[in-house]
Amino acid sequence: MRVIALTKRILRQIVRDKRTMGLLIVAPIFVLTMLHFVFGNEEYTPEIGFVKVPEIIVQQMDVGDDAKITTYDNEKTAKEDLAARKIDGYLVFEGNNPAVVLEGSDPSVSGATMKWLQNALPSVSKNDNEQLMSIEYLHGSSEMGMFRLFRAGSCRIFRLFLRVFNCRSIVLTGTYNGHVRKIAR
Amino acid sequence: MQKIEECISINHVSKSFGKQQVLEDINLKIFEGEIFGLLGPSGAGKTTLVKQLTGLDLPTSGEVYLFQKKMPTLKLINSIGYMAQSDALYEDLTAKENLQFFSELYGLKGKDQTRRITEVMDLVQLSDDLTKLVSNYSGGMKRRLSLAIAMLHEPKILILDEPTVGIDPVLRQSIWEAFDLLKQSGITIIVTTHVMDEAEKCDRLGMIRDGRLIAIGTTRELKEQTNSKTIEEAFLVYGGA
Protein backbone atom coordinates (compact mmCIF):
# COMPACT_ATOMS: atom_id res chain seq x y z
CA MET A 1 0.00 0.00 0.00
CA ARG A 2 2.68 2.45 1.01
CA VAL A 3 4.82 1.37 -1.89
CA ILE A 4 1.98 2.09 -4.30
CA ALA A 5 1.44 5.49 -2.71
CA LEU A 6 5.15 6.25 -3.01
CA THR A 7 5.31 5.13 -6.62
CA LYS A 8 2.31 7.25 -7.52
CA ARG A 9 3.82 10.28 -5.86
CA ILE A 10 7.21 9.86 -7.53
CA LEU A 11 5.67 9.38 -10.98
CA ARG A 12 3.54 12.46 -10.51
CA GLN A 13 6.60 14.44 -9.49
CA ILE A 14 8.58 13.29 -12.48
CA VAL A 15 5.78 14.25 -14.85
CA ARG A 16 5.56 17.71 -13.28
CA ASP A 17 9.30 18.28 -13.33
CA LYS A 18 10.19 19.67 -16.73
CA ARG A 19 13.92 19.44 -16.16
CA THR A 20 13.82 15.75 -15.34
CA MET A 21 11.64 15.07 -18.36
CA GLY A 22 14.10 17.00 -20.51
CA LEU A 23 17.06 15.05 -19.21
CA LEU A 24 15.21 11.76 -19.51
CA ILE A 25 13.96 12.14 -23.07
CA VAL A 26 15.44 15.09 -24.93
CA ALA A 27 19.05 14.73 -23.76
CA PRO A 28 19.54 11.09 -24.92
CA ILE A 29 18.03 11.94 -28.31
CA PHE A 30 20.43 14.84 -28.65
CA VAL A 31 23.46 12.81 -27.57
CA LEU A 32 22.59 9.88 -29.84
CA THR A 33 22.12 12.23 -32.78
CA MET A 34 25.54 13.72 -32.17
CA LEU A 35 27.05 10.23 -31.91
CA HIS A 36 25.38 9.29 -35.15
CA PHE A 37 27.03 12.21 -36.90
CA VAL A 38 30.41 11.35 -35.43
CA PHE A 39 30.54 7.58 -35.73
CA GLY A 40 27.85 6.93 -38.32
CA ASN A 41 28.83 4.97 -41.44
CA GLU A 42 28.74 7.58 -44.09
CA GLU A 43 29.29 6.02 -47.52
CA TYR A 44 32.84 6.72 -48.46
CA THR A 45 34.13 6.45 -52.00
CA PRO A 46 37.79 5.51 -51.83
CA GLU A 47 40.16 7.05 -54.31
CA ILE A 48 42.52 4.35 -55.51
CA GLY A 49 45.54 4.52 -57.72
CA PHE A 50 46.55 1.66 -60.05
CA VAL A 51 50.26 1.31 -60.70
CA LYS A 52 51.41 -1.13 -63.37
CA VAL A 53 48.29 -3.23 -62.93
CA PRO A 54 48.18 -5.73 -65.80
CA GLU A 55 45.45 -5.02 -68.31
CA ILE A 56 43.98 -8.48 -67.94
CA ILE A 57 43.41 -8.02 -64.24
CA VAL A 58 41.82 -4.59 -64.70
CA GLN A 59 39.40 -6.19 -67.14
CA GLN A 60 38.53 -8.89 -64.66
CA MET A 61 38.02 -6.41 -61.88
CA ASP A 62 34.58 -5.23 -61.01
CA VAL A 63 35.41 -1.53 -60.86
CA GLY A 64 31.92 -0.03 -60.68
CA ASP A 65 31.15 3.40 -59.23
CA ASP A 66 32.22 2.62 -55.68
CA ALA A 67 35.75 3.84 -56.14
CA LYS A 68 37.56 6.49 -58.09
CA ILE A 69 40.43 4.99 -60.04
CA THR A 70 43.50 6.88 -61.14
CA THR A 71 46.09 5.10 -63.25
CA TYR A 72 49.77 5.82 -62.73
CA ASP A 73 52.73 4.91 -64.86
CA ASN A 74 55.20 4.63 -62.04
CA GLU A 75 55.06 4.14 -58.32
CA LYS A 76 56.85 7.39 -57.50
CA THR A 77 54.06 9.68 -58.69
CA ALA A 78 51.51 7.46 -56.97
CA LYS A 79 53.42 7.79 -53.73
CA GLU A 80 53.57 11.55 -54.10
CA ASP A 81 49.82 11.73 -54.65
CA LEU A 82 49.29 9.46 -51.70
CA ALA A 83 51.38 11.74 -49.50
CA ALA A 84 49.44 14.73 -50.83
CA ARG A 85 46.23 12.85 -49.96
CA LYS A 86 44.96 12.94 -53.53
CA ILE A 87 44.41 9.19 -53.31
CA ASP A 88 43.67 6.97 -50.32
CA GLY A 89 45.80 4.07 -51.48
CA TYR A 90 47.21 2.39 -54.54
CA LEU A 91 47.48 -1.08 -55.93
CA VAL A 92 50.81 -2.03 -57.35
CA PHE A 93 51.95 -5.23 -59.08
CA GLU A 94 55.48 -6.38 -58.54
CA GLY A 95 55.60 -9.16 -61.07
CA ASN A 96 52.55 -11.28 -60.26
CA ASN A 97 52.19 -10.26 -56.65
CA PRO A 98 49.73 -7.54 -55.84
CA ALA A 99 50.68 -5.10 -53.14
CA VAL A 100 48.62 -2.36 -51.56
CA VAL A 101 49.96 0.85 -50.11
CA LEU A 102 47.53 2.76 -47.93
CA GLU A 103 47.67 6.26 -46.57
CA GLY A 104 46.51 4.87 -43.25
CA SER A 105 45.88 7.87 -40.99
CA ASP A 106 42.12 7.38 -40.91
CA PRO A 107 41.18 3.76 -40.12
CA SER A 108 37.73 4.12 -41.64
CA VAL A 109 39.19 5.31 -44.95
CA SER A 110 41.77 2.51 -44.93
CA GLY A 111 39.04 0.03 -44.18
CA ALA A 112 36.84 1.27 -47.02
CA THR A 113 39.77 1.08 -49.44
CA MET A 114 40.72 -2.45 -48.39
CA LYS A 115 37.14 -3.60 -48.56
CA TRP A 116 36.78 -2.31 -52.07
CA LEU A 117 40.03 -3.90 -53.18
CA GLN A 118 39.13 -7.25 -51.68
CA ASN A 119 35.81 -7.23 -53.44
CA ALA A 120 37.26 -6.04 -56.70
CA LEU A 121 40.13 -8.50 -56.89
CA PRO A 122 38.41 -11.83 -57.33
CA SER A 123 41.50 -14.00 -56.98
CA VAL A 124 42.52 -12.58 -53.65
CA SER A 125 39.44 -13.52 -51.72
CA LYS A 126 38.45 -16.69 -53.52
CA ASN A 127 41.59 -18.74 -53.80
CA ASP A 128 42.96 -20.03 -50.55
CA ASN A 129 46.30 -21.07 -51.94
CA GLU A 130 46.89 -17.64 -53.39
CA GLN A 131 49.50 -15.64 -51.56
CA LEU A 132 47.95 -12.78 -49.65
CA MET A 133 48.35 -9.23 -50.75
CA SER A 134 51.07 -7.40 -48.95
CA ILE A 135 49.80 -4.26 -47.32
CA GLU A 136 51.93 -1.27 -46.51
CA TYR A 137 51.04 1.92 -44.78
CA LEU A 138 52.37 5.37 -45.43
CA HIS A 139 51.24 6.47 -41.96
CA GLY A 140 50.18 4.31 -39.10
CA SER A 141 49.87 0.55 -39.28
CA SER A 142 47.32 -2.19 -39.44
CA GLU A 143 47.46 -2.39 -35.65
CA MET A 144 45.91 0.98 -35.36
CA GLY A 145 43.80 0.31 -32.32
CA MET A 146 40.90 1.86 -30.51
CA PHE A 147 42.95 4.81 -29.40
CA ARG A 148 43.65 5.94 -32.91
CA LEU A 149 40.12 5.13 -33.89
CA PHE A 150 38.79 7.38 -31.20
CA ARG A 151 41.24 10.02 -32.19
CA ALA A 152 39.82 9.85 -35.63
CA GLY A 153 36.39 10.06 -34.08
CA SER A 154 37.21 13.06 -31.98
CA CYS A 155 38.72 14.61 -35.04
CA ARG A 156 35.38 14.22 -36.71
CA ILE A 157 33.65 15.81 -33.74
CA PHE A 158 36.00 18.72 -34.19
CA ARG A 159 35.19 18.93 -37.86
CA LEU A 160 31.51 18.80 -37.04
CA PHE A 161 31.85 21.74 -34.72
CA LEU A 162 33.79 23.63 -37.32
CA ARG A 163 30.94 23.01 -39.68
CA VAL A 164 28.32 23.92 -37.14
CA PHE A 165 29.91 27.19 -36.20
CA ASN A 166 30.85 27.89 -39.80
CA CYS A 167 34.42 28.59 -39.04
CA ARG A 168 36.08 26.46 -41.63
CA SER A 169 38.12 29.45 -42.67
CA ILE A 170 40.32 28.81 -39.65
CA VAL A 171 43.56 27.67 -41.18
CA LEU A 172 45.43 25.06 -39.28
CA THR A 173 48.99 25.10 -40.44
CA GLY A 174 50.33 22.26 -38.34
CA THR A 175 51.70 19.46 -40.47
CA TYR A 176 52.90 17.06 -37.79
CA ASN A 177 49.94 14.84 -38.33
CA GLY A 178 47.76 13.86 -41.19
CA HIS A 179 44.60 14.66 -39.25
CA VAL A 180 45.37 18.27 -38.90
CA ARG A 181 46.16 18.67 -42.54
CA LYS A 182 42.91 17.01 -43.35
CA ILE A 183 40.99 19.48 -41.26
CA ALA A 184 42.74 22.42 -42.80
CA ARG A 185 41.83 21.20 -46.20
CA MET B 1 -13.66 17.66 38.19
CA GLN B 2 -13.46 14.31 36.48
CA LYS B 3 -10.37 12.23 36.61
CA ILE B 4 -8.17 12.96 33.64
CA GLU B 5 -6.15 10.23 32.02
CA GLU B 6 -2.47 10.75 31.77
CA CYS B 7 -1.44 10.34 28.15
CA ILE B 8 2.18 11.34 27.94
CA SER B 9 4.78 11.05 30.62
CA ILE B 10 8.36 12.09 30.29
CA ASN B 11 10.68 10.72 32.94
CA HIS B 12 14.15 12.15 33.52
CA VAL B 13 14.78 12.70 29.86
CA SER B 14 18.17 14.06 28.89
CA LYS B 15 19.56 14.51 25.45
CA SER B 16 22.97 15.56 24.33
CA PHE B 17 24.59 15.85 20.94
CA GLY B 18 28.23 15.10 21.57
CA LYS B 19 29.31 17.41 24.38
CA GLN B 20 26.41 19.75 23.95
CA GLN B 21 23.63 19.04 26.42
CA VAL B 22 20.33 20.01 24.85
CA LEU B 23 17.85 18.58 27.34
CA GLU B 24 18.55 18.17 31.00
CA ASP B 25 16.48 15.90 33.23
CA ILE B 26 13.01 16.76 31.99
CA ASN B 27 10.01 15.44 33.90
CA LEU B 28 6.61 16.19 32.49
CA LYS B 29 3.13 14.75 32.40
CA ILE B 30 0.58 15.68 29.81
CA PHE B 31 -3.07 14.74 30.22
CA GLU B 32 -5.64 13.66 27.73
CA GLY B 33 -7.68 16.37 26.10
CA GLU B 34 -5.59 19.34 27.03
CA ILE B 35 -3.69 21.88 25.03
CA PHE B 36 -0.19 21.89 26.35
CA GLY B 37 2.16 24.65 25.35
CA LEU B 38 5.91 24.38 25.34
CA LEU B 39 7.26 27.87 25.62
CA GLY B 40 10.83 28.90 25.27
CA PRO B 41 13.23 31.01 23.29
CA SER B 42 14.80 29.62 20.14
CA GLY B 43 17.46 27.06 20.87
CA ALA B 44 15.91 26.15 24.21
CA GLY B 45 15.30 22.57 23.15
CA LYS B 46 11.59 22.66 22.34
CA THR B 47 11.94 20.83 19.06
CA THR B 48 14.34 18.29 20.55
CA LEU B 49 11.86 17.53 23.33
CA VAL B 50 9.02 17.19 20.85
CA LYS B 51 11.11 14.80 18.78
CA GLN B 52 11.58 12.56 21.81
CA LEU B 53 7.80 12.54 22.22
CA THR B 54 7.11 11.49 18.65
CA GLY B 55 9.80 8.85 18.71
CA LEU B 56 11.72 10.55 15.94
CA ASP B 57 14.71 10.72 18.22
CA LEU B 58 15.97 8.70 21.16
CA PRO B 59 16.79 10.37 24.46
CA THR B 60 20.33 9.89 25.78
CA SER B 61 18.82 8.86 29.09
CA GLY B 62 15.33 8.65 30.53
CA GLU B 63 12.08 7.36 29.07
CA VAL B 64 9.06 8.66 27.27
CA TYR B 65 5.71 6.89 27.65
CA LEU B 66 2.73 7.42 25.39
CA PHE B 67 -0.48 5.78 26.55
CA GLN B 68 1.62 3.73 28.98
CA LYS B 69 3.73 2.41 26.11
CA LYS B 70 7.39 3.13 25.92
CA MET B 71 8.46 5.19 22.96
CA PRO B 72 9.57 4.77 20.30
CA THR B 73 7.13 2.21 19.03
CA LEU B 74 5.66 1.70 15.61
CA LYS B 75 2.27 0.76 17.06
CA LEU B 76 1.58 4.28 18.18
CA ILE B 77 2.65 6.03 15.04
CA ASN B 78 -0.89 6.23 13.73
CA SER B 79 -2.10 7.91 16.88
CA ILE B 80 0.35 10.79 16.60
CA GLY B 81 0.00 13.67 14.24
CA TYR B 82 3.22 15.57 13.92
CA MET B 83 3.79 18.82 12.19
CA ALA B 84 7.43 19.72 11.88
CA GLN B 85 8.83 23.17 12.12
CA SER B 86 9.77 23.29 8.47
CA ASP B 87 7.16 22.29 5.95
CA ALA B 88 7.64 18.85 4.50
CA LEU B 89 5.52 19.16 1.40
CA TYR B 90 6.02 18.13 -2.20
CA GLU B 91 6.17 21.46 -3.95
CA ASP B 92 5.67 20.14 -7.45
CA LEU B 93 2.42 18.44 -6.55
CA THR B 94 -0.94 20.05 -5.84
CA ALA B 95 -2.31 20.29 -2.30
CA LYS B 96 -4.78 17.54 -3.08
CA GLU B 97 -2.07 15.22 -4.37
CA ASN B 98 -0.04 15.89 -1.24
CA LEU B 99 -3.01 15.05 0.94
CA GLN B 100 -3.76 11.95 -1.09
CA PHE B 101 -0.18 10.77 -0.74
CA PHE B 102 -0.08 11.23 3.02
CA SER B 103 -3.52 9.74 3.57
CA GLU B 104 -2.49 6.69 1.57
CA LEU B 105 0.56 6.37 3.80
CA TYR B 106 -1.84 6.27 6.74
CA GLY B 107 -3.98 3.72 4.95
CA LEU B 108 -6.93 5.99 4.20
CA LYS B 109 -8.71 5.02 1.01
CA GLY B 110 -11.68 5.87 -1.17
CA LYS B 111 -14.58 7.70 0.48
CA ASP B 112 -12.86 8.00 3.85
CA GLN B 113 -9.96 9.69 2.15
CA THR B 114 -12.09 12.23 0.28
CA ARG B 115 -14.12 12.93 3.40
CA ARG B 116 -11.06 13.55 5.56
CA ILE B 117 -9.42 15.71 2.91
CA THR B 118 -12.50 17.96 2.69
CA GLU B 119 -12.76 18.10 6.47
CA VAL B 120 -9.19 19.11 7.17
CA MET B 121 -9.05 21.55 4.29
CA ASP B 122 -12.22 23.22 5.52
CA LEU B 123 -10.67 23.48 8.95
CA VAL B 124 -7.61 25.32 7.66
CA GLN B 125 -9.69 27.22 5.08
CA LEU B 126 -7.84 25.99 2.05
CA SER B 127 -10.72 24.28 0.25
CA ASP B 128 -10.57 26.73 -2.65
CA ASP B 129 -6.87 26.10 -3.24
CA LEU B 130 -7.06 22.33 -3.27
CA THR B 131 -5.92 21.96 -6.88
CA LYS B 132 -3.15 24.55 -6.78
CA LEU B 133 0.48 23.53 -6.89
CA VAL B 134 2.10 23.81 -3.50
CA SER B 135 4.97 25.79 -5.03
CA ASN B 136 2.42 28.54 -5.73
CA TYR B 137 1.30 28.60 -2.10
CA SER B 138 2.26 31.38 0.27
CA GLY B 139 4.22 30.61 3.43
CA GLY B 140 1.11 30.74 5.59
CA MET B 141 -0.81 28.50 3.23
CA LYS B 142 2.00 25.94 3.37
CA ARG B 143 1.88 26.01 7.18
CA ARG B 144 -1.85 25.41 7.08
CA LEU B 145 -1.48 22.58 4.61
CA SER B 146 1.12 20.98 6.89
CA LEU B 147 -1.35 21.32 9.73
CA ALA B 148 -4.06 19.71 7.61
CA ILE B 149 -1.73 16.81 6.82
CA ALA B 150 -0.93 16.33 10.51
CA MET B 151 -4.63 16.08 11.28
CA LEU B 152 -5.53 13.83 8.34
CA HIS B 153 -5.61 10.49 10.11
CA GLU B 154 -7.50 11.75 13.19
CA PRO B 155 -4.65 11.22 15.63
CA LYS B 156 -5.27 11.16 19.37
CA ILE B 157 -2.25 13.32 19.98
CA LEU B 158 -1.40 16.26 17.82
CA ILE B 159 2.13 17.56 18.16
CA LEU B 160 2.67 20.87 16.48
CA ASP B 161 6.05 22.50 16.25
CA GLU B 162 5.48 26.24 15.92
CA PRO B 163 2.22 25.89 14.00
CA THR B 164 1.36 29.56 13.71
CA VAL B 165 4.61 30.96 12.37
CA GLY B 166 3.89 33.04 9.30
CA ILE B 167 0.15 32.97 9.78
CA ASP B 168 -1.77 36.23 10.08
CA PRO B 169 -3.65 37.08 13.30
CA VAL B 170 -7.11 36.48 11.87
CA LEU B 171 -6.21 33.04 10.66
CA ARG B 172 -4.28 32.32 13.83
CA GLN B 173 -7.47 33.05 15.71
CA SER B 174 -9.42 30.58 13.60
CA ILE B 175 -6.72 27.94 13.92
CA TRP B 176 -6.85 28.26 17.68
CA GLU B 177 -10.61 27.91 17.54
CA ALA B 178 -10.03 24.74 15.58
CA PHE B 179 -7.65 23.55 18.30
CA ASP B 180 -10.38 24.14 20.87
CA LEU B 181 -12.80 22.09 18.80
CA LEU B 182 -10.29 19.26 18.50
CA LYS B 183 -9.65 19.44 22.22
CA GLN B 184 -13.35 19.06 22.95
CA SER B 185 -13.38 15.90 20.87
CA GLY B 186 -10.77 14.51 23.24
CA ILE B 187 -7.60 15.12 21.29
CA THR B 188 -4.48 16.12 23.12
CA ILE B 189 -2.59 18.94 21.51
CA ILE B 190 1.01 19.83 22.21
CA VAL B 191 2.13 23.13 20.78
CA THR B 192 5.56 24.65 20.85
CA THR B 193 5.82 28.37 20.52
CA HIS B 194 7.94 31.33 21.32
CA VAL B 195 5.08 33.77 21.00
CA MET B 196 4.02 34.65 24.51
CA ASP B 197 0.47 35.77 23.85
CA GLU B 198 -0.20 32.52 22.08
CA ALA B 199 0.97 30.67 25.15
CA GLU B 200 -1.91 32.19 27.13
CA LYS B 201 -4.37 30.21 25.07
CA CYS B 202 -2.91 26.91 26.22
CA ASP B 203 -4.44 25.05 29.17
CA ARG B 204 -1.09 24.32 30.68
CA LEU B 205 2.35 25.59 29.92
CA GLY B 206 5.84 24.24 30.21
CA MET B 207 8.58 26.81 30.10
CA ILE B 208 11.88 25.66 28.72
CA ARG B 209 15.14 27.47 28.83
CA ASP B 210 18.57 26.12 27.99
CA GLY B 211 17.27 22.57 28.00
CA ARG B 212 15.71 22.76 31.45
CA LEU B 213 12.05 22.87 32.29
CA ILE B 214 11.88 25.96 34.46
CA ALA B 215 8.15 25.99 35.18
CA ILE B 216 5.00 23.98 34.62
CA GLY B 217 1.45 24.97 35.34
CA THR B 218 -1.69 26.57 34.04
CA THR B 219 -1.27 30.07 32.75
CA ARG B 220 -3.04 31.48 35.80
CA GLU B 221 -0.90 29.53 38.22
CA LEU B 222 2.24 30.71 36.55
CA LYS B 223 1.16 34.31 36.63
CA GLU B 224 0.04 34.14 40.24
CA GLN B 225 3.21 32.49 41.42
CA THR B 226 5.33 35.25 39.96
CA ASN B 227 2.98 38.13 40.64
CA SER B 228 3.08 39.09 37.03
CA LYS B 229 0.35 40.21 34.68
CA THR B 230 1.51 38.50 31.56
CA ILE B 231 3.15 35.21 30.64
CA GLU B 232 6.07 37.18 29.30
CA GLU B 233 6.78 38.68 32.70
CA ALA B 234 6.37 35.29 34.31
CA PHE B 235 8.85 33.82 31.89
CA LEU B 236 11.34 36.56 32.68
CA VAL B 237 10.95 35.96 36.40
CA TYR B 238 11.55 32.21 36.03
CA GLY B 239 14.34 32.59 33.55
CA GLY B 240 16.12 35.53 35.13
CA ALA B 241 16.03 34.27 38.69
Strand order across the largest sheet of chain A: 2-1-3-4-5
Counting DSSP E segments of at least 2 residues, the number of strands of chain B comes to 10
Average residue pLDDT of chain B:
87
Q: Remind me, CATH topology of the largest domain in chain A?
A: D-Maltodextrin-Binding Protein, domain 2
Topology, number of strands of chain A: 5
**Corresponding CATH superfamily of chain B:** P-loop containing nucleotide triphosphate hydrolases
Assigned CATH class of the largest domain in chain A = Alpha Beta
What is the level 1 CATH name of chain B?
A: Alpha Beta
* Unreliable residue runs of chain A: 124-130, 166-185
What summary fits the major beta sheet of chain A?
Answer: 5 strands, mixed
Q: Given the structure, what is the number of helices of chain A? A: 8
Proportion of β residues of chain B?
25-35%
Q: What is the residue-mean pLDDT of chain A, rounded to a whole number? A: 73
SSE-based structural type of chain B = alpha/beta
CATH architecture of chain B: 3-Layer(aba) Sandwich
Helix content of chain B: 25-40%
Global geometry of chain A: elongated
Cα Rg of chain B: 18 Å
Written account of the structure:
The complex is a heterodimer of chains A (185) and B (241). With 185 residues, chain A is of the alpha/beta class. Chain A is 52% helix and 14% strand. Chain A folds into 3 domains: 2-39; 47-137, D-Maltodextrin-Binding Protein, domain 2 (3-Layer(aba) Sandwich), CATH 3.40.190; 146-184, no CATH class. Chain A is built from 8 helices and 5 strands; from the N terminus they run H-H-E-H-E-H-E-E-H-H-E-H-H. The model of chain A is unreliable at 124-130 and 166-185 (pLDDT under 50). Chain B has a single domain (6-240), classed as P-loop containing nucleotide triphosphate hydrolases (Rossmann fold, 3-Layer(aba) Sandwich). Chain B is of the alpha/beta class and 241 residues long. Chain B is 35% helix and 27% strand. In chain B, the strands form 2 sheets. Chain B has a 6-stranded mixed sheet with strand order 6-7-8-3-9-10, sandwiched between helices. A 4-stranded antiparallel sheet of chain B has the order 2-1-4-5, covered by helices on one side. The interface between A and B is small, with 10 and 9 residues.
